[in-house]
Amino acid sequence: MNPTSRKNYILLSAFDFLYLFSWSATMSFFVIWTTQHLGISATKTGIIYSINALIALLMQPVFGYVSDKLGLKKRLLWFLVALLLPVGPFFIYVYAPLLVHSFWLGALLGGLYLGVIFNSGCGVVDSYLDKVSRRYEFEYGRVRMWGSLGWAFATWLTGKYIDINPDIPFWMGSAAILLAGLCFLFTRIDLTQQEVKETESLKVSNALQLLKNKQFWMLMIFMLFVNQIYDTYDQQFAQYFSLQFATREEGNHWFGILGSIQVFFETVFLAIVPWFVNRVGAKKALVIAGCIMSLRILGSAIEIGPIWIGAMKMAHAIEKPLIVVSLFKYIAANFDHKLSSTVYLLMLFSASLATTIYSPLAGYLYDSVGFVNTYIIFGTVAGVFTVFTAIMLKDKGSQPEEEFTEATVA
Question: In its keyword annotation, does this UniProt entry include Transmembrane helix (predicted)?
């Protein structure tokens, strides 16, 4: 690795650490903050998640195209950093009072803000880091592992302080973004004339060609009915875990510790997974991740105490790296590289569309039939569609080239 690549790897790893630290500090205990500290029901919390996803739904295709249009230019990430800086004061002085006293206004305003900075912003950040990693020849997964460490550290701190003073994690979120901006300032991303020419020549019609690509739709089905079922299940898992203990405070404390341990192992696997995905192929890695997701959801329906439920949480340490790395590698191998951000953000678009529908449904099911029965339903759906996509999703190397040229840029 040359000096410029090494410098960019270190600074972008620090940036991702701090970005995900901020996200975790503000959102990892979100369901506990809303239900236990603000007194909002599970159904209303599901509505909040749904609105956040709906806003992201509108923004992700736009962000994807703009990200590909800008290429390695930093402008879009600077825009996100500027929006993220006041995240702490927003939660404390704007979001919380509105959710309590004017729920729908708070949910809509919060959805607009959080839908951009996190639900859409994460795709912009991940896609940009993937592009830089390919440009400077280091593994994206080994940048993302530092982001997971940031998430783990923030989860541990949040679990420690949320019952003492729930405002502390939000102030930590803003402080982390200030440091992230400084790290990003010192990165050196050189643009070649060819790269500038390619991004400037990109047109909306090129992105629309993706709609004719069969594998694009198969990948979207996987995201809709496997990955996003899993993400919806995971939204209120902290609440379910805390119910396994004598008091909610004890459950919150142990969830913070468990979350930190889980993300530590997630970091370890992120260092290993790029080698594994390169060896077995991106499609097989996606299917393996889908199997782990389905089994984890169904396993959570076996309510035999906090140790077992904690073990289900730990399975996330394997599944998350597999999804993150294999999805980017599948996109890079099977779609035109100039549209990589568009494809990725459209996958997140499908996820947000699903969340808009799934989250209030999940909240209603939790309140009406309980966590266990809801998990059986979710796990069955995810398992069926994992089998479906295992059959229908194809790798470029195993198919005629023509099947994968529909999305290329003329």
Answer: yes
